[in-house]
Amino acid sequence: MDGRPNLDRLNAFLIHPTKAILVADAILSAIKDYDGDGYLEFGGRDLTEIYTHPDSMCYVPTAYYELRKGKIHPDGALTRTEDIKINGLYLPPNKQLDRNGFCCKIIPIPGKKHKTAFQTQ
Question: Which domain holds residue 98?
Fold first, then answer.
């Protein structure tokens, strides 16, 4: 799917004879074993606007899915690990939006390592 102006998306459907059910709406990525658990994964994070204050940043949530036994499942462990790597912390889906319900919550930059990574995105 063309995700302009953001990144392209991958939509995965479960197909039945009478209907198709959307099971994953993820960032288009290579399908590979990202975390070494023996299962193929796909997903990632979208682009967000750069926050204007150098002491804070927009929380950039990730979403990864795993192919296991012919089915697609959310990969919570990989999602949590990547969120911590990128943002310095993990916020569950119900805590990622700002008070107006928009993406994404503004958080303090957790450390110099993440500040540098944020500025180069």
Answer: 29-119
